[in-house]
Amino acid sequence: MDEGIPTSPETPGDAVPATGERAKEVTPAAPSEAAVDTDRDFGLGHRELARPGATPGARSVREVSEGFTGSEGGERGGSGGDGEPARAAAASPEAARQSPPPPPPLLLPLDEPWDGRASLQQADAVAPWERRRTRSRRTFVAGALLLAVVSGAVGGLIGAYLERTGGLESVQLPQPGPPPPGRPPGSVAAIAARALPSVVTLRVTGAGEQATGTGFVLDARGHILTNNHVVAPAVSAGGRITVTFSGGTAARATVVGRDTGYDLAVVQVHGVRGLTPLPLGDSDAVRVGDPVVAIGAPFDLPGTVTAGIISAKERPITSGGGSGDGSDVSYVDALQTDAPINPGNSGGPLLDVHARAVGVNSAIRSADDQDGPGDGRAGSIGLGFAIPINQAKRVAEELIATGKATHPVIGITLDMDYTGDGARIDAKAADGGPAVTADGPGARAGLAAGDVITALDGQPVHSGEELIVRTRSHRPGDRLSLTVERAGAEKRLTLVLGSSDRN
Predict the structure, then answer these.
(1) What is the pTM of this model?
(2) How far is CA 71 from CA 78, 110, 181, 236, 294, in A?
(3) 109 partner at 20 to 30 Å CA-CA among 34, 246, 380, 473?
């Protein structure tokens, strides 16, 4: 036994290793009350029972302490206080015999290596569970921050999706119920539905020109009514007319007859079945303000439907005159309408509320017209003119029957340069003959050169063009009443209209 290492009389043979040496085999006696108190006083965490294979009745104890290191623990282990009694007991054998036995040494488990240095921590060091608690707290904070970032990103994506789509559920706006099976009679939709199958588009080429116009079916034999100025280019050699129906069927057409004075023409298609003639109305029964619908192909847009009213009746207009000799001038006692009409509408129908044709759209006045109604290349300004269907029907019947139309005539030559109110009879005819045709309707009624006609059937006449228009609104053989001024005196005359096939 080494010197300097005291032994207790009560425990002979039990040696306590010096501080810093590893215990090889120890069989301590039963723990004394002092040892228990020491454990409590020094705050030892727990004791571990001896591992399997240790001496029976002995316990291998690992003391977990946070308040001391190896040598200091040995000095303090003798008492629950500051360690001074233990040093005194070691210095005096008598004191050692009278004092209680020292507590068992602090040991480490045999299966844990030890490098000779104290493995216990200082009192001011952080306990292992405190370090674990700090690490856990840091881990929790980091996880919470990461969760917040991820949640924010996911929430932003979900918010953007909801903003774009309006929600997680599909959006269903209120839908209208099923449409009614038809439209009220007299509505624009009902008129268009009934009339469109009878309206056609004409494309004409010839004489270095091409034109687009409109027409409508007159009968099941393929006769189609349109304007003369629409088909005029096709009269020349190599002219061609193509008719396209509302269903898309196209066919070649030929001119049956035309009249420049009325600006009307009839063409015919062959080999086309299932044609739907357009019913004709009564233009004399039309009243100002009546609703009307126009159908045509303005600027080559087939099947265009526009609506308006009858703005005026018996509006005397002239159109054409491009030839310079007056042979292409047409005189129309027209229906005026504000239904939009544009180039390409020419020849199309003007319809009443019963989808019956009451006029043939022929001319418009546009903002750039200087001399009167024309083709209106600048577009509609709400001044459209249509040939009354009663007049067009008579002309069409004659064109289909004979290829020509007759004009009612008075048998006089008018002074077209007269600027006064009324229509004055010229002094002589264009060929130098008499201005009043011998044995003509005017001569039989008593008219003479220089007379000024101021009214026809009680309606004022303001110019020579207006007298021609009013006359051509009648049929040959109709009886008219004229009001005439002669040498400052007013006379009333009656005449019966004659007939001519010349313009």
Answers:
(1) 0.65
(2) 12, 19, 109, 135, 120
(3) 34
